[in-house]
Amino acid sequence: MSLEIDPVCGMKVDPVKTAHKTIYKGRVYYFCSKHCRELFDKNPEYYLKHGPVGHV
Ligand SMILES: [Zn+2]
Question: Is residue 56 part of a domain?
Answer without folding.
Answer: no
